[in-house]
């Protein structure tokens, strides 16, 4: 590097550093002097490099991309993004595993996070989904328990299959997702070779005040590819960051991964009579009832410059719903609408939304001020209260979402009453090829081998109720 371009090292305050090799001491062998501010600053900053990792989805990888509208859904939504075919916006996607810590291996059996931030001209739209259309539970009250059962034993600090199967065997609503998790799709070959789903039922609403229920699907255009447990175990030992490396390398080589974005649309009224509870996160809507409609294509085409600044500090929230996008009464989604911003405030500070990777690409006119690390000018001298007589930002009724009809008393309703936790899991099993069934049974038997017999029997009873053959094969695999 030529002398002229050589940069002089400085302290955080920009003060040039004379010597970054030797601490300041009293005499060549004497004690280090407190006056060595440069040494103090480096140690202090080093001790504070880590922010809390995500309590779930800690290990991940991210990339920027472009979303382009290719299908006309403007009759369902007033969102400007979908006003005409050809519209596009920048986006950021973060993929992740669920249960593993920051340093854990990528190629494990686990759902994958598929978090998308679309920087639209009417604010960020965050579709914070997974690579599976359903989930293990349908009420957020069980989320902390569920995750505790998937993480480490409180005594030994070790992962424990008994905890996992104990929870699942006592929560039959988990069967559909457990079947997906232990199928061949449970370990994606790369983040590029898996689908993404919004999973919940969301909504879209148009200028006429009509609401439609919607399921979002992100279909990989690289094809679905999975790893067997044997391949995944070998890779995890050789390269725990295999999926992160693959995404970075693919984009560096110009092999930009793409996904087709599609929706299933249900007219608002249908929800009252549809045979399947449309807001139950453990259920899918069969495509024969509500076929897939083309919406657009998302392509990832740029890797972050700095992992911590852009991936570790990225913050997604299902509550980021610009005009024309909406939630649904899905109990899990309702809780997520509040949980994510709370997690970000704790993990990366109250002004996280102003960080470059999270900053909307449209004007932000909020009355929220001050707070730690207010590095964005804090709106200068503009008025910071409303109502006001000084031309401050005003709310605007035109963006009002249509009212949502509510019925019934406030109560804690038993979510299991009249609920069928077996049909869709059984339908999935019966859809599988002979090879997929063999992989599914083999993966489950290996995972349940060390689990106490009473829990094995309780879980096999659920497999049986989904499909006799399913239960029989797991039972015989376990020698029961
Ligand atoms: Fe999450 N989830 N979640 N989750 N989730 C988080 O937010 C939560 C659920 C998902 O790459 C946390 O920033 C609750 C379903 C992804 O940064 C936290 C419930 C689905 C990511 C949180 C769920 C997801 C998270 C932890 C039960 C798929 C990573 C750190 C109601 C539809 C996003 C954070 C990223 C992260 C809460 C269940 C997807 C704790 C309360 C279902 C992809 O706020």
Question: Can you give a write-up of this model?
Answer:
This protein is an alpha+beta fold and 480 residues long. The protein has a domain at 52-133 and 192-362: Catalase core domain (Catalase HpII,  Chain A, domain 1, Beta Barrel), CATH 2.40.180. It has helices at 37-47, 143-150, 161-169, 175-181, 229-238, 242-252, 307-312, 331-348, 423-431, 434-448, 453-466, 468-477, and strands spanning 60-69, 88-97, 112-120, 123-130, 196-197, 202-205, 211-220, 258-267, 292-302, 325-326. Strands 1, 2, 3, 4, 5, 6, 7, 8, 9 and 10 form a 10-stranded antiparallel beta sheet that branches. β3 and β4 form a beta hairpin. The N and C termini lie far apart (70 Å). The mean pLDDT is 97. The structure holds CIS-heme D hydroxychlorin gamma-spirolactone 17R, 18S. The site of CIS-heme D hydroxychlorin gamma-spirolactone 17R, 18S has 25 residues, from β2, β3, β4 and α8.
Ligands bound, unique: CIS-heme D hydroxychlorin gamma-spirolactone 17R, 18S
Major sheet: 10 strands, antiparallel
Give, in order, the helices and strands.
HEEEEHHHEEEHHEEHEHHHHH
Question: In CATH terms, what is the architecture of the domain at 52-133 and 192-362?
Answer: Beta Barrel
- Cα(first) to Cα(last) distance is 70 Å
- Secondary structure class reads alpha+beta
CATH superfamily assignment of the domain at 52-133 and 192-362? Answer: Catalase core domain
Roughly how much helix do the residues carry, as a percent range? 25-40%
Judging from the principal axes of the Cα atoms, what is the shape?
globular
As for the CATH topology of the domain at 52-133 and 192-362, it is Catalase HpII,  Chain A, domain 1
Low-confidence stretches: none
Average of per-residue pLDDT values: 97
- β-strand number: 10
Rounded to an integer, what's the Rg over CA atoms?
25 Å
Number of helices: 12
Tell me the β content. 15-25%
- Per CATH, the class of the domain at 52-133 and 192-362 reads Mainly Beta
């Amino acid at each position: 590097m030529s002398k002229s371009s050589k940069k002089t090292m400085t302290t955080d305050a920009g003060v040039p550093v004379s010597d970054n090799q030797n601490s300041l001491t009293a005499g060549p062998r004497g004690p280090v002097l407190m006056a060595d501010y440069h040494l103090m600053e480096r140690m202090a900053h080093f001790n504070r490099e880590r922010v809390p990792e995500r309590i779930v989805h800690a290990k991940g990888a991210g990339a920027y991309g472009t979303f382009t509208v290719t299908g006309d859904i403007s009759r369902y939504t007033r969102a400007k993004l979908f006003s005409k075919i050809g519209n596009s916006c920048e986006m950021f996607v973060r993929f992740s595993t669920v249960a593993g810590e920051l340093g854990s291996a990528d190629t494990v059996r686990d759902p994958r996070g598929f978090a998308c931030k679309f920087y639209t001209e009417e604010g960020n739209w965050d579709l914070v989904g997974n690579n599976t259309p359903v989930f293990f539970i349908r009420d957020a009250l069980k989320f902390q328990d569920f995750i505790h059962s998937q993480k480490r034993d409180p005594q030994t600090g070790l992962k424990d299959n008994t905890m996992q199967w104990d929870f699942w065997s006592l929560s039959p609503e988990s069967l559909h997702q457990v079947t997906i998790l232990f199928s061949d799709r449970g370990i994606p070959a790369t983040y590029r070779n898996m689908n993404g789903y919004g999973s919940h039922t969301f909504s879209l609403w148009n200028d006429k005040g009509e609401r439609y229920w919607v399921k979002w699907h992100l279909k990989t255009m690289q094809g679905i590819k999975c790893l067997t447990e044997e391949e995944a175990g070998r890779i995890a030992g050789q390269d725990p960051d295999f999926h992160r490396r693959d995404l970075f390398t693919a984009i560096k080589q110009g092999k930009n991964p793409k996904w087709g974005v599609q929706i299933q649309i249900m007219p608002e009224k249908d929800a009252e009579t549809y045979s399947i509870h449309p807001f139950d996160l453990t259920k899918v809507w069969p495509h024969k009832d509500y076929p897939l409609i083309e919406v657009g294509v998302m392509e990832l085409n740029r890797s972050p410059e700095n992992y911590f600044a852009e991936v570790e500090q990225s913050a997604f929230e299902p509550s980021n719903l610009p005009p024309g996008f909406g939630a649904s009464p899905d109990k899990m989604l309702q809780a997520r609408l509040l949980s994510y911003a709370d997690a970000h405030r704790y993990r990366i500070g109250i002004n996280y939304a102003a960080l470059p990777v999270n900053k909307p690409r449209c004007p932000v006119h909020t009355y929220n001020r001050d707070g730690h690390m207010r590095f964005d000018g804090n709106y200068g001298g503009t008025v910071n209260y409303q109502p006001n007589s000084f031309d401050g930002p005003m709310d605007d009724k035109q963006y009002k979402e249509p009212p949502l009809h509510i019925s019934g008393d406030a109560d804690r309703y038993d979510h299991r009453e009249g609920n069928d936790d077996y049909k869709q899991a059984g339908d999935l099993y019966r859809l599988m090829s002979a090879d997929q069934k063999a992989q599914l049974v083999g993966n489950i038997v290996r995972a349940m081998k060390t689990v106490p017999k009473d829990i094995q029997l309780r879980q096999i009873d659920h497999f049986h109720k989904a499909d006799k053959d399913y239960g029989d094969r797991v039972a015989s695999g376990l020698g029961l």
